[in-house]
Specification:
Elements: H1 3-15, H2 18-25, H3 29-43, E1 48-50, E2 55-57, H4 59-86, E3 89-94, H5 101-113, E4 118-123, H6 133-136, E5 142-146, E6 155-164, E7 166-171, E8 190-192, H7 200-204, E9 217-219, H8 225-233, E10 239-242, H9 244-248, E11 254-258, E12 265-272, H10 278-289
Parallel strand pairs: 3-4, 3-5, 8-9
Antiparallel strand pairs: 1-2, 5-12, 6-12, 7-10, 7-11
Helix pairs in contact: 1-2, 1-3, 1-4, 2-3, 5-10
Length: about 290
């Protein structure tokens, strides 16, 4: 069985069309057909039903590809990790709200102290099922995000590269917008978000104060940072966030007011214990030498 055969089968399972599959993989249709037939002979079973009008998976095809897809992805990730390690490359993941001055400071320090390393930046999106998926599956070697105090044994948090004050993002027309600071209970109703499999939601806005007074809040679903900021600017909600957002998303229609009774949050490097890329370890060492503001 060849990797190309599995790649063709996985692509065909999505396209269900030989021509589109060939175009997608930059192969000839005859190559796609021959490789698929060879795979089916190897397995002793048909993976697809073909007629002149349509292509569809057989039950055995669905079963095989459901099990083959994660294995194939794992092989590709392993190969990519080896290539990056050989090239002294570290893939550094960041979220839109963690890509500010602290990230720039870390990269510049790495370039100064370890000029032999190559840093590839990867912008990440929040995963509703597993906040740490990018480091677990090898998408990145290290990611820059907020310290959650994760109890996951395969996750390492730290060192810290920044410490951010807590602020409320609100419409510039809000009655609270001109204040020098506010209490978390002065907002009638916060709007936050939930992320399954992590404590990141409660990190930004806990369900209660340190005195166990409930904090009124509801939840929203946002597909992009632009949508998120637009809803704030329109006054649809107030959101508890960090000071760096004001740098990243400075807008005249949004005000950022410090929250004096929520503690600051550390911005840290997060990695998987299973990642053995020495370039990633070198970046972590550089980060450890930085002084947190």
């Amino acid at each position: 069985m060849e990797l190309e055969q599995v790649r063709i089968a996985l692509a065909l399972a999505e396209e269900l069309h030989f021509g589109r599959t060939a175009d997608r993989l930059h192969l000839s249709q005859s190559r796609v057909s021959k490789q698929l037939s060879a795979l089916e002979r190897e397995l002793g079973a048909a993976l697809f039903e073909r007629t002149s009008r349509r292509v569809r998976l057989t039950p055995l095809g669905r079963r095989f590809l459901a099990e083959a897809e994660p294995a194939y992805a794992g092989l590709l990730a392993a190969a990519e990790t080896v290539r990056r390690t050989a090239a002294n490359e570290v893939r550094l993941g960041f979220f839109p709200t963690t890509g500010g001055a602290a990230l720039t400071r870390l990269i510049r320090a790495t370039q100064r102290d370890r000029p032999d390393l190559t840093v590839e930046l990867v912008e990440l999106s929040l995963d509703s099922n597993d906040f740490y998926r990018p480091v677990r599956d090898g998408t990145v070697d290290v990611m820059v995000t907020w310290r959650t105090g994760s109890a996951d044994t395969d996750i390492v948090e730290g060192p810290a590269i920044d410490r951010q004050r807590r602020v409320a993002a609100m419409s510039a027309d809000s009655p609270l917008a001109g204040r020098s600071s506010i209490s978390v209970l002065e907002v009638g109703n916060w709007k936050t978000f939930e992320l399954g499999g992590s404590s990141i939601g409660d990190l930004f806005l806990p369900p209660a104060t340190s005195d166990n007074v409930p904090i009124p809040r509801d939840h929203g679903i946002f597909t992009s940072l632009a949508e998120f900021l637009g809803q704030i600017a329109l006054g649809h909600f107030t959101h508890a966030t960090v000071g760096s957002l004001a740098e990243i998303a400075h807008r005249d229609d949004i005000a950022y007011v410090p929250i004096h009774d929520l503690p600051p949050i550390d911005l840290v490097l997060v990695r998987s214990r299973r990642n053995d890329n020495p370039a990633a370890a070198a970046m972590v060492a550089v980060a450890r030498s930085l002084r947190t503001p």
